[in-house]
Amino acid sequence: MNNDQNGNQQGESLYVKRDERLQSEISVMRSLLPYLRPYLGRILLALALILLSKLANLTVPVILKYIVDGLNVEPNLLVLPVALLLAYGAARVSVTLFTGLRQVVFARVMARVSRQVTLQVFRHLHALSLKFHLARRTGGVARDVERGGSAITDLLDWTIYSILPIALEVLLVTIVLVWAYDWVFALITLVTLMAYAAWTFAVTEWRTRYYRASVEADTRANERAVDSLLNYETVKYFNNEEHEARRYDHSLRYLEDARVKAQKTLTVLDVGQTVVVSAGVTAMMWRAAAGVVAGNLTVGDLVLVNAYLLQLSAPLFLLGMVYREVKQALTNMERLFGLLDENLDVQDAPGARELMVTRPRVRFENVGFGYDPRRQILHEVDIEIPPGGTVAVVGHSGSGKSTLARLLYRFYDVDSGRITIDGMDIREVTQSSLRRAIAIVPQDTVLFNDTIFYNIQYGRPEATREEVEAAARAAHIHDFITRLPDGYETQVGERGLKLSGGEKQRVAIARALLKNPAILIFDEATSALDSRSEKAIQAELDRIQVGRTTLVIAHRLSTIMHAHEIVVLDKGRVVERGTHDELLALDGHYAGMWTLQQMQRAEAQLAAAINE
Q1: Percent of the chain with pLDDT strictly greater than 90
Q2: What is the distance between the alpha carbons of residues 321 and 266, in angstroms, rounded to a whole number?
Q3: Burial of residue 187 (number of CB atoms within 10 Å: 0-12, 13-18, 19+)
């Protein structure tokens, strides 16, 4: 009894999964339709060309029949076969011509729709919150986008170029056979088609699970490869090349097994299709040959039926492959549109306004926040940065300093309280205008794999070369760049790894200066610099802060001594606030950190003097 129940449950589960897949495929097609509507004219023209191509193709066997039958006429009437031969050649040329025109007409539709969908997914990925991107695997997402974009072209290609033409050709040939001969030909054709369709659909549904498994395995393998290559230096540091190769090979084994199973099931599908089509063709030829022997049909009729069978058998073999490719394309598109279905955690409010500020006042009002509901990071944080003023936030690692910058940029929304700029809640202004007003120099600067010029100009893409060089001078990196063999055209490498940490930091500072923002954020901006470079740049940072509302997140307390206010965070709470001198007088958290850093600095100077 239990076995029966388990069997019933498995059967119901299988039907549920099939139903879910069908609903998913229908959903994918619905998602694609809006992109096709603007090209309805081209689609209808392509369909008309398909019809003309099939009609021309339909006449080829008919003309061939009359040529064969006409070969027995008297020599003085040979003009008739010559005319038919010319008509035969014209018909074949027409088939190729209409097919080529159809491809020309529809090529733009396929390429344009694929581009538009892929671009929308790309934009959507950039619109998603930091929460999504911290959890994603770059290699897997890139692979899904790549396969999905190609799948759109494949789906349109197979449906418009293959499925519809094959269905139309089968219908036309069946009509001609019934009209010109008898219903037995149509019956054989119908039985063959039904058997072929039943076998193809059943086996393809069965083998789709193996294709899905191969897609999943391919995505996982690509994730492993990209993740390992992005962390090339770390792999080298720990001499873990073989470890990475084993991890990658583990994913490749799953991919290998999935592909082998997919190929085995494909062989089963192909063999079954061949048996069905061959049986149908044999039955049709037997019927036609019997008609010739009985004197009911001519040799030309036999040639016509044989030509039609050849025309049908090739498309029927193709139909199975087409159906398989369509199912695979739908699977890949499902993953692509799945990215579009990712919810935007941070969205512009209806009627959000543009933020227009020059010397804004920034306030964190009773802000509470946690990346995970089970772990609160900030607790009722109150900070105010006056117009054109500088407020520094210090604290031990994990106290929530960098979280303030992420919230101000609105990478996340606060859980409680609010953040305002000139009295406006940042949730009531557009994200674009908000981020346009802010520039950040992060602690960990990541550059694009492009030139130094491009990476600085990224702060304001429309900036002129003179403006880029002026920003580089302000960041004290212009002289360094000009000494390089390729100057500003020097390639920085993946994530800027060809530059040192200090050089990358200066590029980031130049990029922020070029943006010319109303609000500046320095998140450990000089952490990668040595003492000499830090002194040189700190003076420049102090200068560019003038007139701008600035939030400085600092570890080195010597860099924020002149801030208008210093806020000390501890475990997400404000425990002290005041100027440098006021906090030292309190002899609390800040004074303790200051004393410790001064001792460390003295020890470093003593060690340097001894080494000299």
Answers
A1: 14
A2: 9
A3: middle
In order, the DSSP letters of 542-608 are HHHHTTSEEEEE-S-GGGSTT-SEEEEEETTEEEEEE-HHHHHHHTSHHHHHHHHHHHHHHHHHHHH
Q: Under a CB-based contact definition with an 8 Å cutoff, are residues 391 and 564 in contact?
A: yes
Give the per-residue pLDDT at 242.
83
Please, what is the average pLDDT of the chain?
77
**Distance of alpha carbon 53 from alpha carbon 349, whole angstroms:** 53
- Listed as ranges, residues in the chain with pLDDT below 70 are 1-29, 31, 58, 60-92, 95, 98-99, 102-103, 129-140, 143, 160-162, 232-234, 236-238, 306, 309-321, 324, 525-537, 540, 604-605, 608-609, 611-612
A 10 A CB-CB count for 12 gives 10
- Whether domain 22-340 has CATH 1.20.1560.10: the reply is yes
Nearest to 480 by CA among 500, 464, 450: 500
Do domains 22-340 and 348-437+517-612 share one topology? The answer is no
| Three-state secondary structure string covering 44-91 | HHHHHHHHHHHHHHHHHHHHHHHHHHHCCCCHHHCHHHHHHHHHHHHH
Q: Are 18 and 205 in contact (CB under 8 A)?
A: yes
User: CA–CA separation, 571 vs 371, rounded Å?
Assistant: 14
Phi/psi of residue 376, nearest 5 degrees: -80, 135
Sorted by where each begins, the domain ranges of the chain are: 22-340, 348-437+517-612, 446-512
